[in-house]
Design brief:
By secondary structure, the protein is mainly beta. The chain is about 5% helix and about 50% strand. The chain has one helix and 15 strands.
Length: about 240
């Protein structure tokens, strides 16, 4: 929010009122601000002006529809890539179709990551881990495009993702930072979108999506936990802070 200074507000209003009274040809509709807003077609509902179609002047108009959040495949790349810096890191990628893409980047010590992509969909995963003793595993299976963009940093975080889509695309954007956080997410049935951000320590999110779901989950702080089982066609926004 923008803080608005209220210094000399009363004096400014007094001056504006004096100008309004003395100005000729002013709109006389009740509640109309100084000037002639109706002549400007700026959306004020006075003297037959029912507003324009935009957000600033929506009198007599329906609000614009909200566009669903879509986590889409960022490019058409294909192949399997692993980049590791540090000691004791392990990573594995399995793919069954030439259209799959997987990239795992790890920097630190004793991190574990695995990606298993099955089916004919143009699956895409980009996973990054930084720190120590973090664990990431992903399974993508189906004929639609399944997308997972993930990042973990800190110590002892765990992320378990399963995208078991049908004929419609699924998307995951997941970020965890801190230590000992847990994310366990399953997407069933297709057309699921999930954005999860956990900051802090020892937070846990156990989530199942069952088709046509939208989910945004933000947990900030320590020792926060939630379990969600979304029926098909539902949208949820959850924020926990401590």
């Amino acid at each position: 929010m923008t803080d608005i200074s209220r210094t000399h507000l009363f004096a400014s209003l007094t001056i504006a009122a004096a100008v309004f009274v003395s100005a000729p040809g002013v709109a006389k509709a009740p509640g109309t601000p100084p000037g002639d807003p109706c002549a400007k077609s700026n959306g004020n509902p006075c003297q037959g002006n029912n507003g324009n179609g935009g957000a600033p002047g929506n009198a007599g108009h329906a609000k614009p529809p909200t566009t669903p959040s879509i986590i889409a495949r960022p490019n058409a790349d294909r192949g399997a890539f692993i980049d590791q810096i540090g000691s004791g890191n392990r990573a594995a990628i399995e793919q069954t179709d030439a259209g799959h893409y997987a990239r795992i980047d790890q920097n630190g010590a004793n991190n574990r990551a695995s990606s298993n992509q099955e089916g004919t969909g143009s699956h895409y995963v980009r996973a990054s881990q930084r720190g120590t003793d973090n664990t990431f595993d992903l399974t993508q299976s189906g004929e639609a495009s399944l997308v997972a963009l993930t990042e973990q940093s800190g110590e002892g975080n765990r992320m378990h993702l399963r995208q078991l889509g049908g004929s419609e695309a699924d998307g995951i954007l997941a970020i965890q930072s801190g230590s000992s956080n847990l994310l366990d997410l399953t997407q069933n049935g297709g057309d699921n979108q999930a954005e999860i951000r956990q900051n802090g320590n020892a937070n846990a999110a156990l989530i199942t999506q069952n088709g046509g779901n939208q989910l945004m989950l933000t947990q900030t702080g320590d020792n926060l936990a939630i379990a969600i089982d979304q029926p098909a066609g539902q949208a949820l926004t959850i924020t926990q802070g401590r």
